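Following the same procedure, sequence and fold were stored together, as reproduced here:

>
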Amino acid sequence: MTIKLRLLSLVTFLFLKIGFSQDAKVTITSSDLSETSFLERTEFKVSYSGSIFWNNGINLGAEYLFKEYTKVKNRKRGLRTNTHQFLLNGTLGFTTNFSTKTDTGIFTNYGITWRRTNKKGKQFSIAINPLGYYRSFLPETYKVTGDNVEKVFLPGRGYYAPSLTIGIGKQRLVKNTGRFFNITSCYAHHIMQAPCLLLIFSMATVLTLKRKKNMQKIIKNCSKVIVLIITLCTVFSCSNDIDFNNLNDTIFVRHRNADMPAYIHGNGSEKVFLIILHGGPGGIGLSYRSSTIKSDIEKECAVVYFDQRGSGMAQGSYSESGISIDIMAEDILALVKVIKHKYGNDSRFFLMGHSWGGTLGPATLLKDQSDFLGWIDVDGAHNTQGMYLEYIANFNRVALEQIEAENDIAYWESVLNLINTIAPEYNLDDVQRLNSEAFEAEAVLHDAGLINSEAGGGDNIIFNYTPLTILWNMQNTQSILDSDLFQNINFQDRLSEITIPSLVLWGRHDMVVPIKFAQDSYDNLGSIEKELVFFENSGHSPMSTEPDLFAEKVIEFINQNK
C-alpha cells in the first residue's frame, strides 16, 4: 500500500509541475471566468468504454472549468500557444462482461483534470480521481452460513476505486464539441489482497456536448442511457427456468466474505455433478472446459467449473488470513450445499482435482466425504512437502535418461547443473525455481516426441475472464499460499481416511508433480474400489494431451459409481 501512495504522490507532483511551472521564455495570461455562467463552464460527456475484448459499457460525465490560462512559448519556429485548463470532473458509468456476466457493475469517480489545448484544437489531458467507487452486480448468488443456504438479494460488492486517466482528443472549435480517446487505470481496493477487480484498463471514445444550448439534448440522452442501464441490470438479474438436459448456469457462492463463481454446463438430467478443482493455486475454472471434457463428459453429467477463493473472477473482502487451504476446502462443501439448494437434495457429486486441485481435493474430503460418490485425482499434489526432494531426484533421473538417448543434451546438462546448485534443505526460492523448470522440461520432452501436443476445442478464455484480474489474483493468491504450501502440507498419511471410490490419473512424463506421487496416492488411499491409470504420452495435463482416453476413463468411473 505504501508503494501505491508514493506512486500517487509522484503523479500528483508531476500533475502540478506540468500545470504551474514557468520559465523566462514563457508568457502566461490568465482568463477571467467571473462573467461566465455555470453552464458555460461545464462540459457534458457521453462515452462508450471497454477493456478491449472483455468489458463493455457506457458512462456519463461532466467537467467544470475553474481555472484557465494561456501560455505562449517563444520557440525557434515561432510562438507556440497552448491553453491550459483545470476542471473538476465527475463520472457515472455501467460496465459488463456479456460472455459470463461475472464482471458487471456501476462505477463513479470524482477528481481534477488538467487539459492542454493547442491552436488546432488538439488536446492532451490527465485526470486524477481520488474519489472513486465501484459496485459490482453478480448473477444468482447464494449465501452459505453453516448448513443454511439463502438466496442473496441484489448480490454484489462495493469497492473503493480511485483512478488515473490519460487522454488525447480533438476539439471542434466551431460547434463546441469534440472527440476524445482515453486510457484509464483504475485500482479497486478492499481489505483482501487478491480481489476480483483490481486493475482495469478501459478505452473510451468520448463526444463532448457543451454549453446551455445542448442541455435539452443532454437530458434526453442521459434519460435514455439510464433506462438502458436499468434494463440491462434487470435482464442480468433474471434467472431462467432450469433445463436439466442442457445446463448453462453461472451462480455465485457467498461464503466467509468471498463470492465465488461456479459455471455449470452439461447434462443434469440425472442430477450428477462433476466438480472440477482447478490448479494453481490461483488458476481458473473454465480453463478446463476444453476438448473432451466439454464434448464428451458434459454429455454424461453436469460439470461444475469453480473459481476458487482469490482466483479467476472470484470477489471478496477479507484479509490474507482469509485465504488458506482449510477455508478453501470449506468453500467446496459450501458449493455442494448451494447446488443441492438450487437443483434438489437428490443431487449427486463426484470431485476431480488437478495439480493444486489435487491438494485441495483431499483437504475437502478429509473434512466431509459423505456427499461424494467418487474422487478423481489428476496429477494431484497431495504431498507438496515431499515434492522438494523428489524434484531433485526426478530431474536427475530424467536428465540422465535423456542424455543417454541423445535428446537435447545441452538442455539436460543444464538441468543437472541446476540441481547441483540446489540445497538439500527446503528453500522457497529454490522450490519455485524447480517448479518453473519442470514446465520447461515438459516442453523439451514434447519436442522430443514423448509428450503429445495439447488438444484445443474449448471455450475462448480471453472472452470469459478479464486477464489483468486473473493475473493479479493468481500472483497474490500464490504468494499467500506458497509460503506454506511446499513446506507444511502433506496428506499422504491421511489418504487412508478417504474411503469413497477413487480414480488416479497421471501423465507418465509429469515433471511438475513427479510420477512417484501417483503410486503413493494409489497405495495410500483407503478406497476399496480404486484404479491407477498412466497416460504414456502425457506430462502434467493428460486431459489435454490424451483427451479421448481421459474422457473414457472418467465417464467409465462415473457410470460405475453413480
